[in-house]
Amino acid sequence: MDLKEIMARNLRQARHDKTLTQEELAHRAGLSMRYVGAIERGDVSASVTVLGQIADALGMEPGELVKRPEASGRRKR
């Protein structure tokens, strides 16, 4: 899974966890709904500026959106 796909998955999960629509998130982040949708589908890569805007809108750190999932069966140190 590449970084674009990881961000797409993490963004979608974070948005769902906060019960926001793509439209609500886009409005909070100052982005278009189409752009947010394209990022969630992994169609486009977000710049670090956009990553920050989205993270701020979700109330989280930008790094959380690009954190790779831990491999199953491996323990965290």
UniProtKB/TrEMBL annotation:
<dbReference type="GO" id="GO:0005829">
    <property type="term" value="C:cytosol"/>
</dbReference>
<keyword id="KW-0238">DNA-binding</keyword>
<dbReference type="InterPro" id="IPR010982">
    <property type="entry name" value="Lambda_DNA-bd_dom_sf"/>
</dbReference>
<dbReference type="Pfam" id="PF01381">
    <property type="entry name" value="HTH_3"/>
</dbReference>
<feature type="domain" description="HTH cro/C1-type">
    <location>
        <begin position="11"/>
        <end position="65"/>
    </location>
</feature>
<dbReference type="InterPro" id="IPR001387">
    <property type="entry name" value="Cro/C1-type_HTH"/>
</dbReference>
<dbReference type="GO" id="GO:0003700">
    <property type="term" value="F:DNA-binding transcription factor activity"/>
</dbReference>
<dbReference type="InterPro" id="IPR050807">
    <property type="entry name" value="TransReg_Diox_bact_type"/>
</dbReference>
<protein>
    <submittedName>
        <fullName>Transcriptional regulator with XRE-family HTH domain</fullName>
    </submittedName>
</protein>
<dbReference type="GO" id="GO:0003677">
    <property type="term" value="F:DNA binding"/>
</dbReference>
